[in-house]
Amino acid sequence: MVEILNSLKSHQVLAEEVKVWYKAAPVDRFPIDGGACVKYKDLQIAVFNFDSGKEWYACQNLCPHKMQMILSRGLTGSCGEEPKVACPYHKRTFSLKSGECLNADEERILTFPVKVEANHVYIGFSR
Amino acid sequence: MKKIIVIGNGMVGYKFCEKIRKTFDASRLSLTVYGEEPRPAYDRVHLSNYFSGATAEDLLLAPRSWYEDNDINLLTGELVTAIDRENRQIYTHKGKRESYDYLVLATGSSAFVPPIRGVERHGVFVYRTIEDLNQILTYGKKIKKAAVLGGGLLGLEAAKALLDMSLETYVVEFADRLMPRQLDDAASDILRMKLTTLGVNILLGKATKEIKGNGKLDGLEFADGTHLDVEMLVISTGIRPRDELAKAANLTIHERGGVLVNEQLQTSDTHIYAIGEVACYQNMIYGLVAPGNEMAEVAIDQMMGAKERIFKGFDMSTKLKLIGVDVGCFGDPFGSSDAVKPLVYKNENTGIYRRLNVTADGKYLTGGILIGDADDYNILHQMVQNKMKLTVAPEALLVKTSAKEEGGAPGVESLPDEAVICSCENVTKGQIQDMVRANENCTINDIKAQTGACTGCGGCTPMVSDLMKASLKSMGKLVKNNLCEHFDYSRQELYDLIKINDIRSFSTLIKTNGKGHGCEVCKPVVASLFASIYNEPAIVHDTIQDTNDRFLANIQRGGTYSVVPRIPGGEITPDKLLAIGSVAKKYGLYTKITGGQRIDLFGALLHQLPDIWEELIEAGFESGHAYAKSLRTVKSCVGSTWCRYGVQDSVSFAIRVEERYKGLRSPHKLKGGVSGCIRECAEAQSKDFGIIATEKGWNVYVCGNGGSRPQHACLLATDVDAETCIRLIDRFLMYYIKTAAPLTRTATWLNKLDGGIEYLKEVVVKDSLGLADTLEKEMQGLLENYECEWKRAISDPDLRSKFAHFVNSTEEDASLSFVDLRGQKMPAAWG
Q1: Lateral strand order in the sheet of B80-84
Q2: B621 to chain A, closest Cα gap in Å
Q3: Residue B479: its pLDDT value, please?
Q4: What domains appear along chain B, each with residue ranges and CATH number?
Q5: What are the structural domains, with CATH classification, of chain A?
Q6: Separation in Å, CA of A109 to nearest CA in chain B
Q7: Residues B660-665: what's their mean pLDDT?
Q8: Which of B486, B507, B830 is nearest residue A67 as measured by Cβ atoms?
Q9: Is B438 on the interface with A (CB under 8 A)?
Q10: B76 against B390, higher pLDDT
């Protein structure tokens, strides 16, 4: 799992410096106000939308607590203004903006830029 | 700047550090601590947890980094060997010298080993430090039979440790009863009976003459000529204060041991204080943590110039669980004065003993003993501590004051403000009330953080919670059980809102009645409400369901799911068994019989679930709803069709009941049971609803529970016919579904219901609220809407397409991995 994380890190990028916009899938393949998992190379990325598809977020699919590929199946929600996802296993919650764990002392998760163009969801990577 | 040296890093030495650093930081005083053990202070009270899986790390009161962060110079594994009082210096075994302004002796005690012949043999241990435990664990692996010498509090703790090691366990006590300092003969009898049934053999009135053996021990010989073969002996016959350092420094020592202290906790040298088990105050050594903590606080105040607070002795009341049995002892347990008369309740069947000492005029409680059930300990103890006048006849106190599970603690309002609610941290009722009054939004976590209440042993948590609610109520505030930050409503209020306004989606509900985007708490509750109101399949609202309901299967370690087809009443044909077998074989699933008479198939990948169900449905199965907060199973015994004792056909009735309520969504899972006769082989009295056959019909029980807090079900109706039985259960379940808080099982719901089972009988059986018709109709409506969720999922291509790991690929999750387990598979270890 350490290799997976390192590989993920090497692909992470700020929204303004994206090198590759990966065309993941049509918008209607994603559940409304929920999440799904996207495969990019050997990486697994959890992608979520809020407000019936008006807001989009992406993060690593791996929950750092028990190293499970699961976050895309988690319940989304908000904590104050912060959008978050809760891991189905033990309900660790993570901010989808900062990646920080909101209710326990866990590693921060990696987040990725998302955009929607011509009814398709794109995820931004550095390579 | 003052310089303080603490000798001893045990529980009380640690508390001293924690308390003094709370008020005085490193700019005001320097703090050095010497501990002779290799590791920082650990929790000696819960030492036996070490045998049931806790690690030495788990037991630490604070990690080493805590001492660094708080500028405490902690030197473990370093022994202080001498005190030079004249120059105010100490010497260590490493030859180091260090001066002090104040010296605190917190050296604690060591185990007292009586001078019995043979005590030096291999296999004889004391029970005191983690090092002792390691030796006991290592030695215990080689043997089968062991004894504890000493039937006091610590001795019984040690016996639990031996039980946890799966050893044949004996307790040998010199006195004629267990815990002679805390219990009377009758209490000891009851405790002994309970412990015997739990596998501890108890020998009382045995004076050990010799520990026999050749090198290692092989047995004990007693003064009465009898003999006990054992391979290991753990000695727990009391403690000896570690006063040798003080003695060498010519401080005054009590004739039976212990450093003499005054009410300021000063020794005979005003620059040296003694606290905890090494200190002797008015001929008394205090061998508990709470008085030690109080001593630490008094010593700090005295040293740092706040002279008002002094040590006035300490109440030795205690409540604990010994090998799973509640034991409480408070005030004066023996009622030793003439003006006090004991009232006693004793039930050998249930193992409950309750002794209350009441003044001759019947107005005050002076102390008592509780065995088997000590739920009322807090309130009774408070009544003694605060010399509260009894408002009821003393006999009434012999009955448990309330059947409420969560502490209940009736009368928390009646306590005086100075009543100490948390004795570990010395927090009074007044302090907690003031906090709530100053800030009506304060939560139990705020109270914990600010006062420290509930952070020690945790025993006061129910009382603090009750007190908080009572304070809010007294301010005229409605105590609201809001779901979470997104809804200012309780589950019951939301139920009504959704129903009255015919709301059908989460987004509508949160836009009209809530705020934000919802969360992992409110979303599943709302999903459950939709199901309980409209009985729509869970998959319709998939993104507000927890993962189990979202994918209609139970998530397991590693990211795969398990599948449980419904097997009503546990009855299954050979053909159906074969069908399950062939599905399991085809998909390589691990199979196991569940506790509810069904078969669980583990290790299915997300995308395999619809294929697996297609085959199961083809073979005549339906969803078992094992993934849902809904009816699980109705367990049955075989009943009158086969059994020579059966008086009714329990299997047929169980099938009928399970078929009736299958798929019924509720605040938590529901389990049922039907037994064919009084022998109760279906264990129906541990279920949410249980039905037991009688010669004349059926007895109906409700609100039982297994799990972590087992509770027997209560009798709702006697000798009713099948139709009445079902009608009563309809009403009961519907009433529960409409009024229970989220994730509350029927047992807990009943415990919190004002009036308890009698009230429930009024509503359900006698229809005192006039609700019976409505409840029955609502239930009928739900049952008519039932459909198998899996049948729907596999026949709808859109729903079916949701069962894929990736949204953009048909590949499987490459991170899955399995290992072999007795010829089947299981997921590899997780992170």
Answers
A1: B80-84, B89-92, B97-99
A2: 27
A3: 66
A4: 2-108+241-303 (3.50.50.60), 124-237 (3.50.50.60), 413-478 (1.10.10.1100), 491-551 (no CATH), 554-784 (3.30.413.10)
A5: 2-125 (2.102.10.10)
A6: 15
A7: 94
A8: B830
A9: no
A10: B76
